[in-house]
Amino acid sequence: MKIFKLDHTSNTTSDAMHKTPKTVQFIAVIEASKGLLVILVGLGVLGLIHDNFQTLAEQLVAHFHLNPASTYPRIFIHFAAQLTDARLALFSLFAFAYALVRFIEAYGLWFGRRWAEWFAVLSSSIYIPFEVYEGFHGSAWVSLVMLLVNVLVIAFMLNALFNEQNSTNTQTS
């Protein structure tokens, strides 16, 4: 009787041939965490369907002893009055779609797929202009932290991509 051993590491595709660096796997965990957080927010929003949002907003403003006639509390109350069940359901749908994209990216990064590494570079790069703008016009320290995190993600991903490309080029030479 012959016993066959299956070797799952003998895949010859370029995606499966390299070992995924720990920094890339850490970024995958961050992306999965973002997806999980967005799912929780989406579920929370779904739980708010059929509530009176204007009353809820007014209660929050009163709880924090804010003046409802001042600019930001008034905008908040006005926004809450405009919310409908359909808008909340649509927001939740978009949140779940965004989370799915984050989970797909996390899967690809965890298993060292080049498409996911490029996607991480692109998706992190999209936020940089907004964070720079917000750093000058809004809450500077939050924007600075987010900008730093995204620049680090881009640097790690580009490093992983170009190190892999260089090692592939030296192996074929």
Verbal overview:
By secondary structure, the protein is mainly alpha-helical. The chain is 79% helix and 0% strand. The protein is built from 7 helices and no strands. It has helices at residues 14-17, 22-47, 53-63, 71-82, 85-110, 114-137, 140-172. Helix 2 (22-47) runs antiparallel to helix 5 (85-110).
Total number of helices:
7
The structural domain count equals: 2
Shape: elongated
Q: Portion of residues in helices? A: over 70%
Largest sheet: none
Secondary-structure content class: mainly alpha
C-alpha-based Rg, rounded: 23 Å
Order of secondary-structure elements: HHHHHHH
Q: pLDDT average, as an integer? A: 84
DSSP, total strands: 0
The low-confidence parts are 1-17
Give the termini separation: 43 Å
**Beta fraction:** under 5%
What topology emerges from the helices and strands here?
Elements: H1 14-17, H2 22-47, H3 53-63, H4 71-82, H5 85-110, H6 114-137, H7 140-172
Short description:
By secondary structure, the chain is mainly alpha-helical.
List keywords for this structure.
173 residues, mainly alpha, elongated
